[in-house]
Amino acid sequence: xxxxxxxxxxxxxxxxxxxxxxxxxxxxxxxxxxxxxxxxxxxxxxxxxxxxxxxxxxxxxxxxxxxxxxxxxxxxxxxxxxxxxxxxxxxxxxxxxxxxxxxxxxxxxxxxxxxxxxxxxxxxxxxxxxxxxxxxxxxxxxxxxxxxxxxxxxxxxxxxxxxxxx
Length: 166
What we know:
Mean pLDDT: 85
Largest sheet: 8 strands, antiparallel, barrel
CATH superfamily of the largest domain: RNA polymerase II/Efflux pump adaptor protein, barrel-sandwich hybrid domain
Helix content: under 10%
Radius of gyration: 20 Å
CATH class of the largest domain: Mainly Beta
Order of helices and strands: EEEEEEEEHEEEEEEEE
């Protein structure tokens, strides 16, 4: 799974993959393997591949994470890179907006009908990519002017899925 960690103004790529009973984590250029064991409902014991063991307290509020270990405390935001890219490319100007696929995938389901009114954040299409179903959301309020795909088709990144008009 890919994330973008935001610490202050720094953006750091993070990749997390299952590795045996634990996880392989790549933070920027650094990779390590860690096994996590719940010590109680507030604490986890982390065993790293270099033999280091830490007791970690983790508090989450939305995308904001506060992680304390040893005598340090780190606050960061973890974001889904697709959601960040979608937010940057939202079209907020009046007129029409083309909602496109952020990655190649297979259209699983169309959630709207032509002429339907939608609000910002309403689901438009379910796109399966990298074995995960992603709900493509309306970037703004509007009416569905056109649907360019059908369920079952495979699309490339950038393919038009739905057109919205104000």
